[in-house]
Task: inverse folding
């Protein structure tokens, strides 16, 4: 699991956008699983096995929670021969996994922030990714919520997923990440195991003036 | 050459549309109809009084001006997404105006055919239609005045600031509403005056506005929103293109050619017009 | 299940309606036109459900009308000509759908508007083939079909049943789509196209499908119209007015709902024909123009956001 940190505006979410195909880079290349995916559209990269959540949740307004997850399950690859019932069951299982099992029929827009973040996670998982981009799952949540997020990180790792997570706060990631990157104004200023990164002076300098990590 | 002259007129005509879009992010699909309305006012005044058409410009402007308030009132109430919904409302408004004009004045073709305008002017080896020269001169004059107004006066700066970023402008203490109101009044007055010029160049009839609106949109796309000098250049370019294509394919195809240009410009741009606006998504 | 039974009952009732009306020609003509516009409104709604708001449906209508008229005049059976009109509408729609795939919102709407103007212009000026501004006349009426009882396919009744058939077809199709993965894809593309793409949903084929289906039914309507009225003109069938009509009807009836647009279309059409038109023909256009303006301004959420009780959602 790799963590990505950086002060506001350093370009963390933008990096996700570029890697995921939502933005085309003006320079440089993106590779995924040995394939050059620079400039390919998001659905190509998604089908190769990338899933992501959005920092500000983007649910499908008007669709039910179940349907939102059903989208990824249905369209992730070209297999059209699985029965509807199977797909719905899989979607339900995902919702149970993130703790939204009882909200299947609710409208996505009726959820609380914490619930919407869980929905984001379920949606990201619905395309059966091998690589997950998680964007600030823990921010804006209560301490209890953050604990839940940590649990999720652990559980996802257990399932064998590779995770690239953005968080604003050091503490959350330091406990689960194998490697941390720190971004400042679009440049990588640190790259290494959590302990080393945390101790780095350059990183402290980047965060100067920011809230306590 | 003649195309370039007409192009100046096109630029002037497009300004009203461009200004409204820039300051209020609202598309005025009824723009052409407003110009035609000004044309009708000018026509009836001319037919009734025999005054030289150029003097009638301010009168026509004044006649259409009040509608500016109505337009602003309506477009203020348009819910988000602003661009799409204003398009819909003004779509309805354009149909409304067309129907009204047809009911009032029937579908007959009218033209301000002042003899002065059909005379020829010799400039060296080139012979130009005096009417067009006068129209172009008037257009350039108005554009010049507008440019001065936008760059030299406080009001002008307010309008330009609002057009770049309305929220920031509001934070800076600029009265965004007043800027919008002034813009609407100015834009519609301008359209009215342009209508008189139009009526001297071209037959007017209730449905003539469609082509004008399309042209205004094309020029706004080419020039960028609210960019005065660019619109002038774009207008001249369009005028020349039009003249060339008319010579080559025949005048009947003009309206279609404009529509094609619009379609092409939209497809090529595949993006937003005003600063900060994006019409393109990333899905492919 | 109950809904399907109800729908079947409704369909049978409508099928028997002419008998009840004694096959009165004007009434049949009126209802046929009403159903025709209900089909076009529903077709527009189909495309809107997929998130694509079109301001240029007159293009598909006109293409269908002319394709139907030209083939009919060339000797094809009028029934075949109507189907051909549907194909023409589908093709024309797919074309603009493909070309404008990167456009959104107002820009897409403008592109469809421009497209309609281009189609109108081409048909207007290509006089050799299309008869130019004068249009085409003498389009044959829908003939009786020998293997059906005469009253059904004679005269105005033929038009009535044809329009009814098209309307039922588009509604049934929409209902099926709403329950299927097509409906899911359309809703996802409509709400958050980028997010759907991230999930592996390729937007383009679904958008093209929406365009093609919408264009097909609109084209069918146009071709049927050509055979009912038996005259087509570019300024008539490609008129912006015919782009506004489905827009207003669908918005009034309830965007994205199944039956809303069709019901509103029938209601508005009958209202305008029976009440407004006799007072003054211009009132028709005025009425719809006002309806559009007021509808956008005062209906919550304007054109895109009609989230009323009747809004149906993919189950």
Result:
């Amino acid at each position: 699991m790799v963590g990505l940190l950086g002060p506001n505006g350093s370009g963390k979410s933008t990096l996700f956008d570029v890697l995921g195909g939502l933005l085309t880079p003006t320079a440089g290349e993106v590779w995924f699983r040995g394939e050059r995916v620079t400039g390919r559209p998001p659905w190509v990269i998604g089908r190769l096995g990338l899933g992501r959540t959005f920092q500000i949740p983007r649910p499908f307004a008007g669709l039910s929670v179940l349907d939102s997850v059903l989208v990824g399950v249905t369209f992730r690859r070209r297999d059209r021969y699985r029965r509807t019932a199977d797909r719905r069951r899989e979607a339900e299982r995902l919702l149970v996994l993130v703790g939204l099992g009882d909200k299947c029929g609710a409208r996505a827009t009726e959820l609380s922030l914490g619930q919407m973040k869980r929905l984001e996670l379920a949606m990201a998982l619905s395309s059966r990714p091998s690589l997950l981009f998680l964007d600030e799952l823990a921010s804006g949540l209560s301490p209890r919520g953050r604990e839940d997020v940590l649990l999720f990180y652990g559980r996802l790792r257990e399932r064998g997923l590779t995770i690239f997570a953005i968080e604003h706060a050091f503490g959350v990631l330091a406990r689960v990440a194998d490697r941390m990157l720190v971004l400042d104004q679009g440049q990588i200023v640190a790259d290494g195991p959590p302990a080393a990164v945390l101790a780095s002076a350059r990183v402290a300098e980047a965060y100067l003036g920011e809230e306590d990590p | 050459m003649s195309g370039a002259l007409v192009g100046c007129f096109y630029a002037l005509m497009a300004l009203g549309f461009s200004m409204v879009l820039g300051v209020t992010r609202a598309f005025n699909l009824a723009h052409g109809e407003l110009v035609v309305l000004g044309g009708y006012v000018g026509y009836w005044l001319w037919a009734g009084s025999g005054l030289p058409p150029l003097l009638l410009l301010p009168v026509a402007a004044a006649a259409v001006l009040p509608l500016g308030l109505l337009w602003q009132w309506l477009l203020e109430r348009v819910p988000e997404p602003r661009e799409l919904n204003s398009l819909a409302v003004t779509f309805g408004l354009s149909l409304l105006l067309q129907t009204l004009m047809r009911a009032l004045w029937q579908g007959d073709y009218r033209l301000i055919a002042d003899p002065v305008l059909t005379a020829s002017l010799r400039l060296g080896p080139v012979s130009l239609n005096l009417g067009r020269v006068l129209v172009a001169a008037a257009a350039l004059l108005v554009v010049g005045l507008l440019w001065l107004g936008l760059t030299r006066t406080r009001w002008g700066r307010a309008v330009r600031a609002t057009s770049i970023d309305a929220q920031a402008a509001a934070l800076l203490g600029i009265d965004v509403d007043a800027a919008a109101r002034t813009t609407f009044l100015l834009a519609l007055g301008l359209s009215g005056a342009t209508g008189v010029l139009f009526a001297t160049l071209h037959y007017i009839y209730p449905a003539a506005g469609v082509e004008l609106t399309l042209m205004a949109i094309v020029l706004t796309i080419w020039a960028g929103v609210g960019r005065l000098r660019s619109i002038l250049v774009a207008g001249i370019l369009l005028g020349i293109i039009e003249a060339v294509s008319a010579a080559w394919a025949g005048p009947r195809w003009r309206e279609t050619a404009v529509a094609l240009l619009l379609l092409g410009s939209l497809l090529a741009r595949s993006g937003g017009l005003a600063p900060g606006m994006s019409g393109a998504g990333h899905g492919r | 299940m109950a809904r399907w039974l109800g729908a079947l009952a409704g369909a049978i009732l409508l099928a028997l309606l002419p008998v009840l009306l004694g096959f009165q020609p004007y009434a049949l003509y009126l209802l046929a036109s009403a159903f025709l516009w209900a089909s076009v409104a529903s077709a527009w709604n189909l495309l809107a459900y997929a998130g694509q708001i079109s301001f240029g449906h007159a293009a598909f209508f006109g293409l269908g009308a002319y394709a139907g008229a030209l083939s009919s005049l060339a000797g094809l059976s009028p029934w075949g000509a109507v189907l051909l009109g549907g194909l023409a509408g589908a093709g024309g729609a797919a074309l603009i759908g493909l070309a404008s795939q990167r456009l959104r919102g107002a820009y897409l709407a403008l592109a469809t508007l421009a497209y309609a103007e281009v189609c109108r212009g081409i048909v207007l000026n290509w006089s050799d083939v299309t008869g130019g501004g004068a249009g085409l006349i003498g389009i044959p009426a829908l003939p009786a079909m020998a293997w059906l009882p005469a009253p059904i396919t004679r005269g105005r009744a033929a038009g009535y049943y044809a329009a009814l058939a098209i309307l039922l077809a588009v509604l049934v199709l929409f209902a099926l789509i709403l329950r299927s993965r097509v409906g899911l894809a359309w809703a996802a593309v409509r709400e958050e196209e980028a997010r759907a793409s991230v999930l592996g949903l390729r937007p383009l084929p679904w958008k093209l499908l929406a365009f093609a289906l919408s264009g097909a039914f609109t084209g069918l309507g146009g071709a049927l119209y050509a055979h009912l009225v038996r005259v087509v003109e570019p300024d008539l069938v490609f008129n912006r007015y015919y782009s506004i009509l489905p827009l207003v009807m669908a918005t009034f009836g309830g965007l994205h709902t199944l039956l809303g647009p069709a019901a509103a279309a029938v209601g508005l059409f009958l209202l305008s024909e029976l009440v407004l038109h006799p007072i003054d023909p211009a009132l028709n256009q005025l009425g719809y123009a006002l309806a559009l303006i007021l509808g956008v301004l005062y209906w919550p959420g304007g054109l895109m956001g009609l989230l009323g009780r009747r809004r149906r959602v993919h189950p």
Notes: Residues 223 and 230 of chain B are 5 Å apart (CA to CA).
